[in-house]
Write a structure and sequence with these properties.
Structural class: alpha+beta
Bound molecules: zinc ion
Largest sheet: 5 strands, mixed
Shape: rod-shaped
Number of strands: 5
Radius of gyration: 41 Å
Strand order of the largest sheet: 1-5-4-3-2
Helix content: 40-55%
Amino acid sequence: MDDHNDKDDVQDDVQDAIAEFAKDEAERDRRKQEKKPKKDRRPIYYAIIAVCIVIIAIQIPKIVSLSKQEPKPNRLGATQTDELTDACINNLWAILQTLQLKETDISEYSCPLNKKPYILTKNKDGYTVECPNATLHGFSHVRITTSKPIPELIP
Ligand SMILES: [Zn+2]
């Protein structure tokens, strides 16, 4: 490339400059594009996940205590009952299932307060089972009816 004249040299210079500029520009573009995905967002995601875990962890005792203190409402009437009354109500549930199976022998069940048998009465819609110790439980009636299958605690 010895036969360059001045004009060619100038042109070469210009072209070099343009090429250089283009290279720089391309380089800048490349860096810019590299920069975007390179901006590592994972720490942010981890932070968000960590916050979520902390929030859930804080809520867990609350959720657990809620499920302990207030299991689904399994009876009508007063909600504050002692353990034996709860056991009696569980018996009413079990008797109800027995009756739904067309089985009327409920002699295996008795009120946990004093082992007295439950009172079974037939009515036109089905059966009513009543605890013989309703007043000892603190109610006038503790019963369940096949036509209305939820224990009733009548104050
Ligand atoms: Zn009872």
